[in-house]
């Protein structure tokens, strides 16, 4: 993992692109905090397609099992009710 400020990235973009193409992840920072990541197209496609696979699996599950009819009380019963998890919509 390589860190680069926005100014450095602006001045060294060709070098950073070559580093990303070689498999490196370039984290771009502003005031010391990461704000963006430069990755290769190949890595982007791997990550992007993984998300599609998860979505497609969810859609297949929905097609296979259909609609699940649950009452509000059933869904509410799944909530974690430990004291630190108190919550109210009111």
From TrEMBL:
<comment type="function">
    <text>Antitoxin component of a type II toxin-antitoxin (TA) system.</text>
</comment>
<protein>
    <recommendedName>
        <fullName>Antitoxin</fullName>
    </recommendedName>
</protein>
<dbReference type="InterPro" id="IPR036165">
    <property type="entry name" value="YefM-like_sf"/>
</dbReference>
<dbReference type="InterPro" id="IPR006442">
    <property type="entry name" value="Antitoxin_Phd/YefM"/>
</dbReference>
<dbReference type="InterPro" id="IPR051405">
    <property type="entry name" value="phD/YefM_antitoxin"/>
</dbReference>
<comment type="similarity">
    <text>Belongs to the phD/YefM antitoxin family.</text>
</comment>
<dbReference type="Pfam" id="PF02604">
    <property type="entry name" value="PhdYeFM_antitox"/>
</dbReference>
């Amino acid at each position: 993992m390589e860190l680069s400020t926005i100014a450095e990235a602006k001045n060294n973009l060709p070098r950073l692109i070559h580093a990303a193409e070689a498999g490196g992840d370039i984290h771009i920072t502003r005031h010391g905090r990461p704000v963006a990541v430069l990755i290769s197209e190949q890595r982007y496609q791997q990550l992007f397609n993984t998300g599609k696979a998860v979505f497609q699996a969810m859609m297949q599950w929905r097609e296979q099992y259909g609609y699940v009819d649950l009452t509000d009380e059933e869904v509410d019963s799944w909530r974690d009710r430990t004291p630190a998890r108190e919550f109210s919509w009111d």
